[in-house]
Amino acid sequence: MRILLAIACFFCLPLLYAQENLDSLLPVRGFCIGAPKPQDVDAFVKFIKEELASRKVNTLILRVDYNYQYQSHPELRDSVALSKADVEKMVKVCNENGIQLIPQINLLGHQSWANKTDKLLTVYPQFDETPWVQMPARYEWPNADKLYCKSYCPLHPDVHKVVFEVVDELCDAFKTNAFHAGMDEVFYLGEDKCPRCSGRDKAELFANEVRLIRDHLAQKNRRLWIWGDRLIDGKTTGLGEWEASYNNTYRAIDMIPKDVVICDWHYERADKTPVYFAMKGLDVVTCPWRKPALAIIQTDDMVNFRQQSSKEMQPHFAGMMQTVWSDARSFLDGFYGNKKDNKGGDSTPWDCFRAMYSKIDSLPQQ
């Protein structure tokens, strides 16, 4: 028996050392995608087990929003939504494969898309930061109202009771110690016509919302993750109003708690903003999307940032996360070749995912 155990240890030890070394190089190896619909849960569970686990992915962010059968606020459920049993299947396979599962609900911004208002403002229109902006029959950008996505008013006295009840319920269902609040591309904030926000500092409004969400999560030892674009000065950096802020929210970076995890997305260039976030004392994860060559550069950058930084800075460079801006079914169809993306060519999220994790797999393991 001792001989058999010794043989098993002999073969297992190199794998353990390799895993420890990979954890040192890239502590977060993530994947972010829209949560599957109920009919696609089994296929997605199979993908987690066969494709994510085999690539040593250890963090999975699911954009759930209202694709869940909430008991606290059933009025906010999508017409077709995940059941608790559906979620339990995904929790189980992630637990079995050492993957941290983090749900997301878009908070503050992204309360609409194109010409469709999402559930929160549909059911509770009084929470709308810009109720005078009407949703168009046909959406175009740019437009006279500067409408990209609606926001809720962070100073409405009733909004957080509703929001936090669904956040808590979702986190309980996912058995998670982290939550992603989105908070990207917030264009409507502190509007002049808003009776509560008018005249207020937009950086303070944004920072206060981050802090409020963070503090609520901390009551149950949960950590807040957000996208990082609103914390970057879009004009000084030249990153523009999408990847960064034109409405002065960037000053909030000096006002938010330091334990918030920043998901730093750049899809056209390998901008070095992770250094900026790390210098502010924030943990940062670099997030590519659909350009394989760019994802490889960003992966090299992240490893170099960790290896060529002081012991104070090094821990803040947390890792990499592939982002997918579609539902799970569309991605699975592309990944498995069930449907062709004639427009994307080789620049697709599944090509990027494969390239990034191939690069990660090739990193020195000793």
Automatic annotation (TrEMBL):
Domain of life: Bacteria
GO biological process, one term: carbohydrate metabolic process
Record domain Glycoside hydrolase family 20 catalytic: where: 78-304
Keywords associated with the record: Hydrolase, Signal
Entry's Gene Ontology molecular function annotations: beta-N-acetylhexosaminidase activity
Pfam entry (one): Glyco_hydro_20
tRNA-binding keyword on record: no
InterPro entries per record: GH, Glyco_hydro_20_cat, HEXDC-like
Signal peptide segment: 1-18
Similarity-based family: Belongs to the glycosyl hydrolase 20 family.
Protein name: Glycoside hydrolase
